[in-house]
Design a protein that fits this description.
The structure is a homodimer. The first copy, chain A, is mostly helical and about 210 residues long. The first copy, chain A, folds into 2 domains: about 10-70, Homeodomain-like (Arc Repressor Mutant, subunit A); about 80-195, Tetracycline Repressor, domain 2, CATH 1.10.357. Chain A has 9 helices and no strands. In chain A, helix 5 packs antiparallel against helix 9. At the A-B interface, helix 6, helix 7, helix 8 and helix 9 of A face helix 6, helix 7, helix 8 and helix 9 of B. Chain A binds a DNA duplex (30 and 30 nucleotides) through helix 1, helix 2 and helix 3.
DNA sequence: AAAACGAAACGAGACGAGCCGTATTGAAGT
DNA sequence: ACTTCAATACGGCTCGTCTCGTTTCGTTTT
């Protein structure tokens, strides 16, 4: 697509692109999302405003791209959950790690900003699901399928529903600050979810 | 409290107060939250901007107050859930009703606005929990306690956790638009929650 | 009782500041 | 040379403050 004839300007573009995303990320972690301005991002990145508007259509898009890029780096290629053969132990490990992530103030501000954007913009929400949520969910579901084969989870369990019941309460408690996020809470969620979807629970219907 | 000597202007205050809150509510349901301006609220209410700023410190506070007032009216005094003696049926009724509420575009916009505010302001979040979330949760917990007495729920079930696992997935699915909200989905949540917290599940620990 | 008074609350809108997104220009990179 | 860039000016919009003249309504005077 960019195999044109002219001189190669991709290095400049890439450098300023990285600077913009880094500046956006830094500002979101420092201030609350509403206070982050395009002008501040440009100033911090040592970049003209027009350079930002050349690439992204709005402030939301820039910030969203910054958050996307963040986790694309972090993920590397493949996301895999631990699989020691003990589903309950593995899930508690993961859930406790998630609890600790939410305790980090920078992570907290970042995810709040991300949620503010996707809650009010259906298009961004779709992109978020596609690029961030889905890969993670697939990794989690892979672990659950492995547990089904090992007889630790009902064969007819609705894995999407199980994941929701595992994660949504944690997410909501954090979003609304309605209770402290502790390791014990993480464990309780795992225990309750396994009671609902464990082997022999007849997960499809309780009649 | 207000047993001063001076003349009583409370009638004027109350009239303009109601007009402001009604205008704020109307605008939030018509536009998206970001597009609602204080000036628009003032114009719609037939009120000067200063009258708004005399009472509330910021735009967020006005809109939040408007949403609070809305449900204070709706609630009347006491919130009670149906109790036919069949917990599963009663919960499905309530969850299906909740699903339908979220399908209403006005309600959708309203709750998205409310969530945008409380997600980014810890003080508003606390007020929200105190005045809106808690009374509803207490009503739901009352129904669950009744079910415990009827032997339809484990006696040592963590009721707060059960409520979260029932409602948080619905809330998150709606917030992120990650799946269609159907009656079948509502039923699945009830079924799964009852499998986790039903009688004889040893709800406190699964060891 | 009727009229005049005065304090509080009010509607309207001007104002400065900040931000958004666009347009222009001259410098720097390749 | 040709492109991309930083810097900056700009119009438009919103916020929250401030001022000004008006309306409301209990009190006081007649």
């Amino acid at each position: 697509m960019s195999n044109e004839k002219g001189p190669d300007h991709s290095r400049r573009k890439e450098r300023s692109r990285q600077a913009i995303l880094a500046a956006a990320r830094a500002l979101v972690t420092e201030e609350t999302y509403e206070k982050v301005t395009v002008e501040a991002i440009a100033a911090r990145a040592g970049v003209g405003k027009q350079t930002i508007y050349r690439r992204w259509p709005s402030k939301s898009a820039v910030v969203f791209a910054a958050l996307l890029a963040l986790s694309e780096d972090a993920d590397g290629q493949s996301v895999t959950l631990p699989d020691t053969g003990d589903l309950q132990a593995d899930l508690k490990l993961v859930m406790r790690a998630t609890v600790e992530e939410f305790a980090d103030p920078s992570f907290d501000k970042l995810i709040r900003a991300l949620n503010t954007e996707i809650a009010n913009d259906a298009a961004l929400a779709a992109e978020y699901r596609e690029k961030l949520a889905r890969p993670l969910d697939e990794a989690k579901k892979a672990r659950l399928r492995s547990a089904q084969k090992a007889g630790q989870l009902a064969l007819d369990a609705d894995l999407d529903l199980a994941l929701e019941m595992l994660y949504a309460p944690l997410f909501q408690s954090w979003l609304h600050r309605s209770r402290p996020l502790t390791a014990a809470y993480a464990d309780s969620l795992v225990d309750a979810t396994l009671r609902a979807f464990g082997p022999g629970t007849g997960a499809r219907s309780a009649h």
